[in-house]
Amino acid sequence: MLFEFDSDQRLWQDTVRDVTAKECPSTLIRNIVDNGADPGPLWKVFVGLGWTELTEPEAAVELGIVLEELGRATDPTPYLATMTQFAQLAPGVAEPDQTGAAVYSGVHAHRDADGWVLHGTAAQVLDGDRADLLAVVTDAGVFVVTADKATATRSPVFDPALHIAEVRFEQVRVEGDPRSDVDPVRARHLALAGLALTTVGACQRVLDLALDHVKNRQQFGVTIGSFQAVQHKATDMHIAIERARALAYFAALTIAEDDPRRNLAASMAKAAAGECQSLVFRHGLQLFGAMGFTWENDLQFALKRARACEHLLGGAAEHRALITEEYRATLV
Asked: Signal sequence: where (predicted)?
């Protein structure tokens, strides 16, 4: 494994960063949140650039680079759910321009004389209310259905640019048998790594905004960035982000290399990202003072994206417990 980006990956990172800065500025996010603007044109940009074709496991690091930059930009499209959740449960099913979401729990399948029937309700489905297709994980296997077969209701959440939905199946009949070529546990690894990288990107945005603020804000005739207490908080944020970033890309590397440590690495990445956002959220607000609480400040979007990702697919405490269990199992 290589633990530094090669020249192609660095170029890819610069390219993605330039595109997101141009196509997904904070003004777009604010227009979507305040005025209900349609993020569809932005999704079409991603499709046109080929970003929705990074579905092979070998491209996990390159996909991770995109996810980090989209986390930094508070991406309002279904890219995260489509690429890291749905695509892993339904490889080769969707067209590049189709969106997808994953239903991990709450839905059951039974078979009658005419085939398979789905029933149940899933909570906290990322982009479940606006996906074209749904990959539904059941005890019988993974079923792929069109979204119109389910009833989805968007739930109010902390991040106003994020779509979280309750998805209900009422005796929905599906064609064919469940997919036998998909391992939901392995698919979940990329979902966790994707959330971790998105969190890292959002936290980096918070740090960037905070640094810009403390370099320009003056108190007692000097910039507040010259105060030791401010420098300590900024340094702590930087260290937490670098730690979370390293573990997130390590998780992406284990997926790309099909390394047996991928399960442990995914939980480590999610736990580190959760701990990172907790510290960055607190310090970021403190460095901005009262300004950080205002609606006019773009800091809110990055803070909310980072905090929302912490609550999806298990928080830091849950994944630390999983890491402990796996480590103890190796000692037996």
From this structure: none
Could you read off the pLDDT of 22-46 as tens digits, one per residue?
999 999 999 999 999 999 999 999 9
CA distances from 217 to 209, 226, 281, 298 (A): 12, 10, 20, 16
Alpha-carbon span 268 to 245, nearest angstrom: 11
Tokens of residue 112, six digits: 């009658």
Token pair for residue 41? 């044109």
DSSP, collapsed to helix, strand or coil, labels residue 120 as strand
Q: How far apart are CA 22 and CA 14, in angstroms?
A: 12
Q: How far from 190 is each of 56, 120, 164, 251, CA to CA, in Å?
A: 11, 25, 19, 8
Cβ atoms within 10 Å, residue 74:
30
User: 59 in the Ramachandran plot: left (φ > 0), alpha (ψ -120 to 50) or beta?
Assistant: alpha
Residue 2: its pLDDT value, please? 58
Chain centre distance of CA 318: 17
Q: In the block, which residue shows the tokens 């449960």?
A: 89
- Give residue for tokens 């499209």: 77
Collapse the DSSP code of 310 into the 3-class scheme (helix H, G, I; strand E, B; otherwise coil) and give the result.
Answer: helix
Maximum pairwise Cα distance, the chain: 80
Instruction: Quote the tokens at residue 34.
Output: 């305040």
Here the tokens at position 62 are: 């390159």
Give me 173's structure tokens: 């009949």
Percent helix, strand and coil across the chain, each to the nearest 5 = 60, 15, 25
User: Contact at 8 Å (CB) between 140 and 112?
Assistant: no
40-81 residue pLDDT tens: 999 999 999 999 999 999 999 999 999 999 999 999 999 999
At residue 16's C-alpha, the angle toward residues 10 and 22, to 5°, is 135
Under 8 Å between Cβ of 168 and 151: yes
Q: Which residues have C-beta within 8 Å of that of residue 57, sequence separation ≥ 6?
A: 190, 255, 256, 258
Cα–Cα distance, 120 to 75 (Å, whole number) = 30
